[in-house]
Structures
1.
Amino acid sequence: MGSDKSNKVLIVVLLIFIQLAKPGDAKLSEKLARNNTESEGTREEKFLSLFSIVRFPNVVCTATNSYNGTCLTSAECTTNGGTASGTCASGFGVCCVVTIQTCGSSTSLNNTYWQNSGFSSAYTTAGQCSLFVSRASSDVDQLRLEFLTFTLAQPDSATLSTTGQCITDSFTVSGSANIVPAICGSNANQHMYVNIGPGTSTVTLSIITSGTTTSRYWNIRVIQIPQNTDYTAPDNCLQWFTEAAGTLVSFNYQYAAAPIVQHLAYQDYTMCIRTNQGFCGVKYALCTPTASYPYGISTVAAGTAAPGTVMDSSCAYDWLQIPCVTDQANSIVTSVGATVGCASKLCGILGFTVTTDSTTATTSLYSYRRPFEVRFYTDYKEFLVTAAAAENYGFCLTYTQQPCLSTVTSG
Ligand SMILES: *[C@@H]1O[C@H](CO)[C@@H](O)[C@H](O)[C@H]1NC(C)=O
Ligand SMILES: *[C@@H]1O[C@H](CO)[C@@H](O)[C@H](O)[C@H]1NC(C)=O
Ligand SMILES: *[C@@H]1O[C@H](CO)[C@@H](O)[C@H](O)[C@H]1NC(C)=O
C-alpha cells in the first residue's frame, strides 16, 4: 500500500513536470533557468520549489555523436523535433540535437544543424531549399552560421560577362539586417554572421539549385548569439575572428591551382579581427605554400599588371582593403599612399606587396589601424576565363596580432 502511494506522488510530480514542459511555452527556458535563491511569493512557486531539483538551464551540451545540442527534457526535445543523444543536467535532461533535412522547415532552437536531404549522401534536386530561423530568445540578434560541410556548384567560368557569378547554385540569406553576399562552390570551415534587425522575426537561409547533375552537400550549424556578449560580432562584420592568430580565406578558395576561377563575383564584405588586449596591429601573410596556391585578385582586363600597379587606384575591379597597409613592421605610417609605403587597397597576382619597385612578392604586410578589418570587394565579373593567369584564385592570408611595443602607438 505504501509503495502504491509513493507511485501516485511520483505520477503527480511527472504530470507537473510535463505541464512545465508544454510546447510553445515561451517562458519555459526562463523558468527552467531561474535560480532558486529568489524569494518565492506565489503558492504555485512555493509548491514547485519542492521539485526544484528537476529545474535546469537549457545550456549547450555535447551529444554522444559529438554534435552540439541543447539540454532539454525528453518531452521538450520531441516537441522541438530533436533527437536525444546522451544525457545532461545530471541525467534529468537529454542532450537534444536538432538536425533538419526537410526543405521549408522552421527552427528557433539554438545549434540547429541544417543539412541537405539525405546528408551525407549527395543532393541533386533542382529548386529552392530554405530554412526559416527565428530567435531562440528575445535577447538574440545575431546568428553565426558555421559551414561544417558546404559543397555547391562552382561559379560560372564559361561566359566572360558572368564569370565568378553563382549561376548554377547559390546560398543566400534574406531578412538579415546586414548584407550577406550570395556564395557557392566549396566553403567548408567558413563562417558568416547574420544580424537580425529589431523589426524582424525570421531570417531565411536558402540554397537555390539548378540542374540535377551537380552533387551538393551541406551541413550548416546555426548558432544563436545574444546581444552584447564578448562573442557578439560588430554589426559590419560578415566574418569575425577572435583569436590572436588565424586564417582569412576568400569564399570558394580551393587550396589548389584549379579551377582557374575561384573567388566569387558580387562580394563586398568585411572580415573583422577582435583586438586582443595589449595588441596594436596585425601582420598579414600569404598562406604557404604560396607557389602552389597563388594569391590572385583581378587587376586588369588582359594579362598581368606591372609591379606597383596592384594597389590603391589601380585596383579598379576587385580588391582587398586593409587600412594603411605597409611592409614596415613595428612602424607607424600615418598617411595613405604608395609613396609613404602605406596603401589601402591590394589586388593583382604579383604578390602581396605595397612596394613599387619589387618584382618579387612581399610575404608579410602590417596594419596598425583599429579596428582590425579587411574588406573584400569584387565586381560582377572576372577576367581571363581561359588563361591560366590565376587572377581569380582569391586569397588565403594568415593574420597575427602584433603586440604593442614602445615604438608603436596605435593610429
Ligand atoms: C540568482 O538570483 C539572484 C537574485 O535574483 C541574482 O542576484 C543572481 O545573480 C542569480 N544567480 C545566477 C547564477 O543566476
Ligand atoms: C561543438 O561546439 C564546439 C564549440 O563551438 C565546436 O568546436 C565543435 O566543432 C562543435 N561541434 C559540432 C559538430 O558542431
Ligand atoms: C547558443 O549556443 C552557443 C554555444 O553553442 C552559446 O554560446 C550561445 O550563448 C547560445 N545562445 C543562446 C541564445 O542561448
Note: Residues 54-96 form one domain.
2.
Amino acid sequence: MHSTVTATVTAFSFLLAICGIFFYFLGIPSIVEKDITAFRRLDNDAGGFSSWKEALIPLQFNVYFFNVTNPDEVMQGKNPVLKEIGPYVYDEFKSKMEYTFDGDTVTYMLQEKLYFNEKLSGCRQEDDIITILNVALMGTAATIKKTFPMGITYFNQAIPHLFLGKNTLFKGSTVREILFDGVTIYCNSTAMAATTVCKAMVNYLPPQIRKLENSSNFAFSLFYNKNKTATGPFKEIRGIKNISNVGTTIEYKGKLHLEVWQENSTCDLVRGYDLSALPPFVNPQMNLQLFVPDICSALHGEFTGEGKISDIRVFRFTGDT
Ligand SMILES: *[C@@H]1O[C@H](CO)[C@@H](O)[C@H](O)[C@H]1NC(C)=O
Ligand SMILES: *[C@@H]1O[C@H](CO)[C@@H](O)[C@H](O)[C@H]1NC(C)=O
Ligand SMILES: *[C@@H]1O[C@H](CO)[C@@H](O)[C@H](O)[C@H]1NC(C)=O
Ligand SMILES: *[C@@H]1O[C@H](CO)[C@@H](O)[C@H](O)[C@H]1NC(C)=O
Ligand SMILES: *[C@@H]1O[C@H](CO)[C@@H](O)[C@H](O)[C@H]1NC(C)=O
Ligand SMILES: *[C@@H]1O[C@H](CO)[C@@H](O)[C@H](O)[C@H]1NC(C)=O
C-alpha cells in the first residue's frame, strides 16, 4: 500500500492536476430531532440507510490539467509555459459493498463509478489532447525504482523502446487516455534494456499500471482502477451511541494511520466524515472534516455563508486543505 500511494502521489505531482472537490449540504431545523436521529443512524431498518449504501446523487469530480504549450522549447532549456485547462467534469457515484456491523461500527468496501458529464464540461471533451510530462514514463520509473532499484540503470536505454516517438519526456495524450484508457507502455521490443524493465514491472504493478489484454504491452492511467475495483475496507461509526459521530471514518485498509505522511502526525491519522454520511444537525461552528482517500488526507470545510436551495436554508462549507 505504501508504494501504491507513493506512485499515486508521484503521478499527481507530475501531472500537476488539481482535482477540486466542492461540497455543500443542507442544514435542517431540529424540530424532529428524534426522528432524524433514527433515520440517519447506520442500520438496516433506518430510513436513510439505502442512500448510504448507494448514493443517488453523484458528487462532482473536477479534473484540471496544466497544458505545456511549448514542449520543444522546454527540451532546449526554456521555461515551460503552462495553461490551465478544465474542468473536465465527472459524475462520481459511490456505493458500499460487503458491509458488516460490529457494535457501533460498520466495515465496508467502496466502489466508485465515474461518468463524463458533457454538459458541465462545456466545450471540453475527453479526446482533447493535453501535453504534460509523460506520466506513464514517470510512473514506470517510480515502479522500477521501488521494486527493482538496479533496473533503473537500464531505464534510460529502455525509454525509446517503451515510449515510441522522439520527445518522450513530454507527451500529448487524450484526457481519456491519461485518466482511464491508459497511455501505452510498449513491451514488444526485444532490446535487452526494454525486456529487463518490462520483466521487472510484471512482478509488481501499482494500480495505475495494468497489463493490456492479448498484448505484451502495459498501460498507465490515473483512474482506470478507481472506476473498476472497490477500495477499502473502511471502518466508520454507525451513530447508534451518538448520532453526531455517524459517518466518522476511523480505519482505512485495516489501519488507524494512512502511513503516507509523517509517522504519528495528525496528517497521517485516518479521520473525517465519509462524504455520504455527514451527520445531521450541522452548525456553522462545527469542525467539518471529510476523509478523502483519493488524496490520502482529510479536507477541512470552512463555513462560508448561508444560502437557499429551493427555499431550503443551507449552510455552505468550502473545502480548504
Ligand atoms: C495543449 O498544448 C498543445 C501544445 O503543446 C496543443 O497542441 C494542444 O492543442 C493544447 N491542448 C488544449 C486542450 O488546448
Ligand atoms: C466506468 O465504468 C463503467 C462500467 O462499470 C462504464 O460504463 C463507464 O464508462 C466507466 N467510466 C469511465 C470514465 O470510463
Ligand atoms: C511495437 O508495437 C508498435 C505499435 O504496434 C509498433 O509501432 C512497433 O514497431 C513495435 N515494435 C517492435 C520492436 O516490434
Ligand atoms: C483476447 O483474446 C480472447 C481469445 O482470443 C478474446 O476472446 C478476447 O476478446 C480478446 N480481448 C481483446 C481485448 O481483444
Ligand atoms: C456526541 O459527540 C459530539 C461530537 O463528538 C460531542 O460534542 C457530544 O458531546 C457527544 N454527545 C454525547 C451525549 O456524548
Ligand atoms: C509513533 O507511535 C508509536 C506508538 O505510540 C511509537 O512506537 C513510535 O515510536 C512513534 N514514532 C515516532 C516517529 O514518533
Note: The chain is about 25% helix and 35% strand.
